[in-house]
Automatic annotation (TrEMBL):
<keyword id="KW-1133">Transmembrane helix</keyword>
<protein>
    <recommendedName>
        <fullName>Isomerase</fullName>
    </recommendedName>
</protein>
<dbReference type="InterPro" id="IPR054803">
    <property type="entry name" value="StyOxIsoStyC"/>
</dbReference>
<feature type="transmembrane region" description="Helical">
    <location>
        <begin position="125"/>
        <end position="149"/>
    </location>
</feature>
<dbReference type="InterPro" id="IPR058965">
    <property type="entry name" value="SOI/HabA-like"/>
</dbReference>
<keyword id="KW-0472">Membrane</keyword>
<feature type="transmembrane region" description="Helical">
    <location>
        <begin position="87"/>
        <end position="105"/>
    </location>
</feature>
<keyword id="KW-0812">Transmembrane</keyword>
<dbReference type="Pfam" id="PF26512">
    <property type="entry name" value="SOI"/>
</dbReference>
<feature type="transmembrane region" description="Helical">
    <location>
        <begin position="54"/>
        <end position="75"/>
    </location>
</feature>
<feature type="transmembrane region" description="Helical">
    <location>
        <begin position="12"/>
        <end position="34"/>
    </location>
</feature>
Length: 156
């Protein structure tokens, strides 16, 4: 395994850990607290809606898996080193941008779906922090997968 693949997998592992933390948030959100002693839930007030915790949990893990899969496929697709380097930052950036988006959506009244108000609520700093990188990396990820598809269909 080369350095590019190792770095991609390392970032994916960190993104996966953040997804796991969102899973803890999901559990607390579902229960309304933490069960320290069986049958006794200690109330814990947590920001965000349960559905947002689901998105942060599952989305984070799926982004991490995506990065790992692509990292492992680079040799199979015979991706040149220069393209592998580009795909690395494109996909790792997408994973972190999406992770930031999921967490910003938890604290943003409008779910970080727009910069201004929408049917869910008002915009604000959290919406901007979550949405701006996500919008940029939507385009970047599309380009990355066009490159991957082109490489997959090219003759060896």
């Amino acid at each position: 395994m080369n350095d590019i693949q190792r770095k991609m997998i390392g970032h994916a592992a960190l993104i996966m850990l953040v997804g796991f933390l969102a899973g803890v948030g999901l559990l607390i959100s579902l229960l309304g607290g933490v069960e320290l002693v069986p049958g006794s839930i200690v109330p814990v007030a947590l920001f965000g809606e349960t559905a947002g915790w689901v998105r942060a949990h599952v989305g984070g893990m799926l982004n991490a898996i995506l990065i790992i899969v692509v990292a492992l496929l680079l040799p199979v697709l015979k991706v040149p080193d220069r393209m592998a380097g580009r795909l690395s930052w494109m996909l790792v950036g997408t994973g972190w941008a999406n992770t930031l988006f999921y967490w910003a959506a938890l604290v943003s009244a409008n779910r970080a779906l727009t910069f201004g108000p929408n049917r869910f609520g008002e915009g604000g700093w959290a919406a901007a922090v979550g949405l701006a990188p996500a919008l940029i990396f939507v385009i970047v990820s599309i380009i990355a997968f066009v490159l991957i598809a082109r490489q997959a269909f090219s003759k060896p």
